[in-house]
């Protein structure tokens, strides 16, 4: 899939998350448990579709925040805390298709930033579209905060 990369200015987006520090080899087993815990400790107050899943990578350790975008009133409990996705100038792309192709989306943004002479600030995040039975229809937004 061709990834069209653009720059944009984004506002902070409120989230409900669990923060964790892990390793890249461990992360595939860690994120699902964290996300399940978030979903089990968020009580939605509105109707309709609920907030999209988010994963914010603050560092390359990785120090992560895994959770949901808050697009309607919620009550949170347990280990879940309120946070926000960063505000500012970003380079971003939209990946459509199975999650195993997300690495290509990240590579496209990194390469494009280098070609444009743009410096990445460090934090990056993914916003996952709502569930779709057909993996080819899954949409994931990939953002890199610019310095």
From TrEMBL:
Transmembrane segments: none
Domain AraC effector-binding: 3-147
Tree of life domain: Bacteria
Pfam families: GyrI-like (PF06445)
InterPro entries tied to this protein: AraC_E-bd, GyrI-like, Reg_factor_effector_dom_sf
Name under which the protein is recorded: Effector-binding domain-containing protein
Organism: Actinocrispum wychmicini
């Amino acid at each position: 899939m061709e990834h069209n990369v653009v720059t944009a200015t984004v506002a902070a987006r409120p989230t409900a998350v669990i923060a964790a520090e892990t390793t890249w080899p461990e992360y595939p087993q860690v994120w699902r448990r964290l996300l399940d815990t978030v979903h089990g400790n968020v009580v939605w107050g509105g109707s309709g579709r609920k907030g999209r899943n988010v994963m914010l990578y603050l560092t390359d350790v990785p120090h992560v925040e895994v959770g949901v975008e808050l697009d309607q009133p919620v009550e949170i409990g347990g280990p879940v805390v309120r946070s926000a996705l960063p505000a500012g100038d970003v380079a971003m792309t939209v990946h459509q298709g199975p999650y195993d192709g997300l690495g290509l989306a990240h590579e496209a943004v990194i390469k494009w930033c280098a070609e444009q002479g743009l410096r990445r600030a460090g934090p990056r995040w993914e916003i996952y579209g709502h569930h779709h039975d057909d993996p080819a229809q899954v949409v994931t937004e990939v953002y890199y905060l610019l310095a």
